[in-house]
Amino acid sequence: MLGKNVIENYFKNNFMNDAISIYSLAGDVAVSKEKTALNILSKGLKLEKKLRESVNSKGLVRNILNIKDTITNKEKYLEEDICNIIIGTPEVLELANKNYFLGYPKDNISGYTTSSYQKNYDCFFMDYLDNVDIIDKKLIIGFYYENSNGEGYFQENRNYYSLLDIKQKNTFFTCLLEKMNNLDDINNLSVDKNSELLKYISSTIKNDEIDNNSKYLTTLEFIESQSLFKSRERVNKRDFINIINSNFKDYSLYIHGVDQSPKFSLVTVNHILRSNLQIDDEYGFSGTCEPKGPVDEISNLEKALDYHYGDNNEKSYNIIILVPKVLDDIEMNRYFLGYSRNNTSGSFPKTMKDFNCLLSDIINEKDYVPKEFIFAYHVYGPNIEDQFYINNKHISLLSDELQRIFGTSFLHVKSKNLENNLNYFKLSNINEDLIYSLAHPIIHRDKFTSLETTALEYFETVDKEKVKKIR
Question: Is the full-model pTM beyond 0.85?
Fold first, then answer.
């Protein structure tokens, strides 16, 4: 039995490469939650519904920002006492002769208290567990119990698989693997077959078959596992400005102010970093994010970062977005996306005549700014030293393969018209005469079309002399 204060270290020291899911016990007048939980540790968890309909998955332990809060979270809001059964699943089955990558259910961001509607829950291991009636006790890390007075403890399970000796673990995993019906797909996950895996990922994206697709999601997780992600880094304003000026000249900068109280602003920020920055259909990208223009055109980055839309005069938060001007896909095609210039309208960016470009068209179609474009969040306020927390999943920090996978996904659009417009800016076969005609329209409007803006920005990027002639 462990106290609340040691839960964080206990999980970090023992289960960093496991994914955890929480099964929250409902109250029963006849049997106490503690007694039920102890029985589960000795006999396993009997399920009345599929696992995904019963648990709230939290992702890999190494990716969880606050393990203690996750384990002690009150899932059953109307009940006085809490009892959370913690199910653990290995990302990799380690047998004596071979390791098998089985994937894991990611953090549930669906908004529901179970993973029933979570699109990235599926993987090879969860396919297996979703078809069993009992979760083996060797896959249960323990349980957290807290009474109505707020007094709680964590009861560890000494029979959890990772705490067993090598022989016991090998026997358990061998038996488990034999019961899986997708062993061929599991065996095909190999570094030696990365080119085949990338082709599979590309075709799956283009066929719109990524949601609830265990093969796709496990394959993507396997490729992600080959990359080492650094911990989220905190830097002061001076260092942050130096990082951007030194490394992101070919990116455009946007800022989104989080308009909440300090406590809920941080909750919102963490949710955005785990999912995406959702935009409302009514506001669109131009009503959600303030553009500061291309980094190579910003003369005073400190002034550009001094943004106060969500300022509550206490502890305030901004989302810092950096978007590359060019994206690659898995087939090595490169696309120029354009960017929004610095907002000098004196009003909201949706009033800018040159806000829209191919980038904004794609974001408006998808209804979100991808988390891969979020570079950091900024914490500021009265008597607070400005701090910037860098997002370790920003596109610039991903491996080349993951960048191209993201590019393939982001560039896959539903609108045929937008797809055609994107093809105008495929750099391998770009028609500069056509782009020139788009940048120099016969009829001038109060607002540029997204194609006109992107065309002009293309020449600004590759041929500034030609831009002078256009203007």
Answer: yes
